[in-house]
Design goal:
Length: 331
Amino acid sequence: MKGYVVAIFLSSIFLYYVLYCILWGTNGYWFPNEEMKSKNNVKNCFKKPAFASLLRFPQFYPFLCKADFVKVAATYGTNNFLLPYGVKTFESYFRSALSKLQSCDLFGEFDTVPCKRCVVVGNGGVLKNKTLGAKIDSYDVIIRMNNGPVLGHEEEVGKRTTFRLFYPESVFSDPSHYDPNTTAVLVVFKPQDLRWLMEILIGKKINTDGFWKKPALKLIYKQYQIRILDPYIIREAAFQLLRFPRVFPKDQKPKHPTTGIIALTLAFHICSEVHLAGFKYNFYTPDSPLHYYGNATMSLMKKNAYHNLTAEQLFLKNLIKKKMVINLTQN
């Protein structure tokens, strides 16, 4: 009888341990590490967003974490897709890069606001002379992308940046653009992007082969500021939001979402209200400014074979029409 009770007791302890690991998302350690504590402490908003119906997994955590990388990839099928939509065949690359990062936190530990108003700021020329800077800076979360500057354009686009999505060819290298309050989010499109990040982090000479233009040779952000976007977000943007085909005809180049649409998809997962600025493009006037900065014109967009900008503009128009998002640069 005594042995029977001991067996039940030990079985109970084992069951508790298994459930504990599952709930906390650990890799088998008795206590969850700090990374998992931060991930599980994210405050969920109980207010249903206007865009909730677009998402299959509204509470999906958008950044990769080294502690549960394998588990999350298997749970959401990311291990079944090649880049940029998954981690298949490049799991070791991701694990190596994640091992060098200091954090996968979404927000700071003192950020307790569950329902966040967010603005996704594109780089479109429509922002010129709009003086939306103060308005943009009033949001809880401000998401920007690539090398769209705030320095020298504060009146038009504001000063603050919460998240900046980038890839090696599009990130700042000039330290004058450094912001200690920005979280820099790497969007991985190809294996070279992970190799580049590893070389940056360990101080190795950058191999520039395999990039469509010369990547940044140094990163102005500190190690604690860097995150890696889960490829599931890119896959969701392509297949669920833009409805791109899984396989393109042989005579067509595969199309992928722009960083802007990927940033919007990120916002859908972390915000309760999403506004847009700088996403409108005028395809009918090729000499009009492409960006709110620089001298590039809309004529460059005709040469782009990697994205389907028409599909993206129609998607955004539909979102605005259904009042799922609000466009600050409508006119």
